[in-house]
Amino acid sequence: MKNIDKFADNLMDETLKEAADTFFGKRKELEDDMDFLQRQVQKLHNQARAIEDIAARINYLLAGGKGAWEFWAGMEAKSLSDIAPEWEPDVALPRAWTRKGRFSSLVRNLYQQLADRIEVYTYGRYVEDQEVKGKKHLTSNLKSVSEFAESINAAIREINACSSPNDIMAFARSMDVEGARKKKFASSDLTYDYNQDLCFQELNLDELGLVKYPELSTGKEAMHNLAVLSKDIYSRYKTEINALLDEIYG
After folding, report:
1. Torsion angles phi and psi, residue 161, rounded to 5
2. Which residues are within 8 A (CB) of 153 and not within 5 positions of it... i.e. 6 or more apart?
3. Crossing angle of helices 99-123 and 2-61, rounded to 10°
4. Are 60 and 86 spatial neighbours (Cβ–Cβ below 8 Å)?
5. In contact, 198 and 165? CB cutoff 8 Å
6. Residues 6+ apart with CB under 8 A from 40
7. Helices in 62-190 by DSSP H: which ranges?
8. What is the DSSP letter of 97?
9. What are phi and psi of 126, to 5 degrees?
10. Contacts of 68 (CB under 8 A, 6+ apart)
11. Which of 232, 231, 234, 244 is nearest to 64 (CA)?
12. Taking phi first (over 0 means left), then psi (-120 to 50 degrees means alpha), and beta for anything else, what does residue 200 get?
């Protein structure tokens, strides 16, 4: 009987260990994925700041923001007009004989930079891997991060449903028959909702603070439209824009 009891105890220990390894292993994998997601989100926030810095410069050129709505509505990107106009003296200034030429060139150059930044932010870009020669990897981007966040939520739903803390604890108690008998005899057979404290909460994607920017075309038609809009805005806000250009060019 002692051998049988010892065998049963060993079997119970192995079964409980396997259940615990599975339970905590899945949770550790999920926690690692969530940490990785937060790092990617932070990289996107850094990219977003760069995007808004460029948009702020364009809006500043547009008569201190007065022509921003007209410009961005014409370029089918109205939301960019909401970014507060601001100028930082870290922009390569194109040369032109006239203020009008300087204005048009500045707006065009910054627009093209903005379009490129938004594309990389939204879809990423393949770059050379710093550690593995000849290998390329996709930079952090909104599309991949959003899909990864959705996959984490799917994993959370699966873990909470199939490996809930309450179920695991109930399984462990069912294996320890002698312990359960002693616990009941001592009138301490209390129930506890482990799910309330230990279940994962699904991610709220809106709370990640990731902005979806309108994609900007740099095709021939779009650039022609940009030139027409720039010309019209300059003609209507000539005084304000000339004063800004004199300040910028010194």
Report:
1. -85, -40
2. 202, 203
3. 170
4. yes
5. yes
6. 140, 144, 145, 148
7. 68-74, 99-123, 142-162, 165-175, 177-185
8. S
9. -80, 125
10. 58, 59, 62, 80, 81, 85
11. 244
12. beta
Token pair for 194: 């482990």
Quick check: 72 and 80 in contact, CB under 8 A? yes
pLDDT tens digit string along 150-209? 999 998 888 877 654 444 444 444 445 454 444 444 444 444 444 444 577 888 888 899
Structure tokens at 53: 């810095």
What's the Cα-to-Cα distance from 147 to each of 7, 43, 60, rounded to whole Å? Answer: 48, 16, 35
Tell me: the pLDDT tens digits for 4-48? 545 444 444 554 455 445 555 677 888 899 899 999 999 999 999
Longest dimension (CA), the chain: 103
Long-range CB pairs of 32-35 (<8 Å, 24+ gap) are 33/148, 33/152, 33/155, 34/152, 34/203
- CB crowding 217-242: b at 16 or more within 10 Å, else e: eeeeeeeeebeebbeebbeebeebbe
Both tokens of residue 225? 């439209």
Q: Alpha helices, DSSP H only, in the chain?
A: 2-61, 68-74, 99-123, 142-162, 165-175, 177-185, 194-198, 220-236, 238-249
CA 237, CA 177: separation in Å to the nearest integer? 85
Token pair in block for residue 224: 């022609």
| Residue with tokens 């410069």, as numbered in its chain | 57
